[in-house]
């Protein structure tokens, strides 16, 4: 064999290796065997305004381009034939409010989402409440509870939380992390008064969006919220039933609830109470949230995965931030795009 023949042979062998990479093949087969797949995206925060930055001026925000990144995600999900999509909150930015552009911005994003051939389930974040009253949201396209197999009993109390089964033996639960909050609740309401009292017990700053100085106490800010006793009890009942049916449950919320999965400034006020409900049910396998644009991940002592998805709004136009989750009997495979990392999520 001449030197040039040898070079051609080596190149061919390398290509064969690439084509027949056993790991790649296994991954492709695995995807074909997934029971179902779903898309996840968080903090799109669309506004038709020029780029800006976050409050601390440490991160750039791409308000106008965020809808382009949503389009990228939708194209990808169509190709991957997902069964449904979970939008984890803050779909349009609070800046729209002062510009009197809330309805228009929502229309732009909803128009995109409606191109999706599958159901999109919406979680609500703080920016939803900067733009709209709770009653308005309940009557808007952002109320996706009707897509659940049965409506939530909580909706009667204006708590936006519901559950449904995306496939046999699996259950999705969407939580309302601003059920206890000082945004989105009328100042005259009992819940607003209770929430303000709790917030002021922990935060003495004149501006309640300014966090207290220390550790986990930093979560007591106006842009966070929590879960009422009614919602915690409802979640406990839903999970008890799921335990009995031996289902695998993934819970979705705008606010993260595990201190190791987020900056403490983004944690839900009563995260401990919610964690304790999750920990007492063997059906729970995963908790997914948004709100902290840097993203995060940890495994709880119980083996439950806590994923905080990177925010679209702080993602460069030449990158992406979304995920496609392939669900199997024994694990989920998160296929991340752009800033979102791939993860294997084995069930506890
Ligand atoms: Zn948020």
Automatic annotation (TrEMBL):
Keywords: Hydrolase, Metal-binding, Zinc. Residues 37-294 form the Calcineurin-like phosphoesterase domain. It is an enzyme of class 3 (hydrolase). Its EC number is 3.6.1.13, 3.6.1.16, 3.6.1.53. Its cofactor is Mg(2+). It comes from the Eukaryota. Monomer. This is Manganese-dependent ADP-ribose/CDP-alcohol diphosphatase. It comes from Anabarilius grahami.
């Amino acid at each position: 064999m001449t030197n040039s023949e040898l070079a051609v042979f080596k190149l061919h062998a390398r290509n064969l290796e690439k084509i027949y990479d056993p790991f790649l093949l296994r991954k492709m087969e695995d995807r074909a065997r997934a029971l179902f797949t779903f898309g996840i995206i968080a903090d799109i925060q669309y506004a038709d305004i020029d780029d800006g930055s976050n409050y601390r001026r440490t991160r750039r925000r791409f308000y106008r381009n965020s809808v382009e990144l949503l389009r990228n995600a939708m194209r990808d999900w169509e190709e991957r034939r997902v069964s449904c999509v979970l939008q984890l909150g803050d779909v349009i930015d609070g800046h729209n409010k002062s510009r009197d552009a809330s309805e228009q911005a929502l229309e732009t994003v909803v128009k995109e989402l409606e191109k999706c051939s599958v159901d999109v389930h919406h979680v609500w974040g703080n920016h939803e409440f900067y733009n709209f009253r709770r009653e308005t949201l309940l009557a808007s396209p952002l109320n996706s509870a009707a897509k659940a197999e049965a409506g939530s009993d909580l909706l009667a109390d204006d708590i936006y939380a519901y559950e449904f089964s995306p496939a046999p033996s699996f259950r999705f639960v969407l939580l309302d992390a601003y059920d206890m909050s000082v945004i989105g609740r009328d100042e005259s309401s009992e819940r607003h008064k209770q929430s303000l009292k709790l917030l002021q017990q922990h935060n003495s700053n004149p501006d309640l969006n300014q966090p207290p100085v220390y550790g986990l106490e930093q979560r007591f800010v106006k842009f966070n919220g929590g879960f009422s006793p009614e919602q915690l009890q409802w979640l406990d009942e839903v999970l008890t039933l799921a335990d009995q049916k031996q289902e695998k449950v993934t819970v979705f919320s705008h606010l993260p609830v595990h201190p190791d999965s987020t900056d403490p400034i983004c944690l839900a006020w009563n995260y401990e109470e919610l964690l304790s409900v999750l920990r007492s049910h063997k059906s729970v396998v995963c908790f997914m949230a948004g709100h902290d644009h840097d993203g995060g991940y940890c495994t709880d002592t119980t083996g439950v995965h806590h994923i905080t998805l990177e925010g679209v709004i702080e993602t460069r136009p030449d990158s992406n931030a979304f995920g496609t989750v392939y669900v199997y009997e024994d694990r989920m495979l998160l296929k991340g795009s752009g800033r979102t990392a791939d993860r294997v999520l084995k069930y506890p």
